[in-house]
Amino acid sequence: MIKKEIQPWTVLEEEDISPSPWFPLTKQQVRLRNNNVYDYYFSRLGDVVQVLAITKQNEVVLVRQYKHGLGQITLEIPGGLQQTNKTIIQSALNELEEETGIKATEHQLISLGKIAINPTKLKQETYGFIVFDAESTAEQKLDATEDIEVVLIPAPQVLQMALNGEIWVTDSLNFILKAAMLYPGVFGR
């Protein structure tokens, strides 16, 4: 098979057209390899962290909360946007503690890699981690817009819920399935 040379587009102009700080929006004028010029729109929402926490009892720590973009209550693994002036690792540890009351250390975080949910329209990478022997040792420290219920479910049941569509938010689903492949014993496989 002949490998095709793929090239990035050339950015000719760029403009921030964000309607609010909640939804950054960028307009670029770009030139493609074939010299065609287009206006292209995308959002730089910021990178995200998620932590799949497993308790000593082999339960997965999930968060149940309302997501206004969907207009629905979802069941996900804890996480959030990378925090200002914090590294990905620091943000992961902070989000885990803030949303669930679970304190962990950098040495407990095991990377599950990163994913991009919609690279056509979002400049955003989501970094996943797994923590074993998690236990709640602090109070939740929720943001003003958060109302979160912490839910503990046995890991094999969480995998089944992911497979049958009860857990369906993309990033949580991806990291649960990846963890089940990497740690099959945890998920009853």
From TrEMBL:
Keywords on record: Hydrolase
Protein family (similarity comment): Belongs to the Nudix hydrolase family. NudK subfamily.
GO molecular function, one term: hydrolase activity
Protein name (Swiss-Prot/TrEMBL): GDP-mannose pyrophosphatase
Catalysed conversion reaction: GDP-alpha-D-mannose + H2O = alpha-D-mannose 1-phosphate + GMP + 2 H(+)
Co-factor(s): Mg(2+)
Boundaries of every Nudix hydrolase domain copy: 44-175
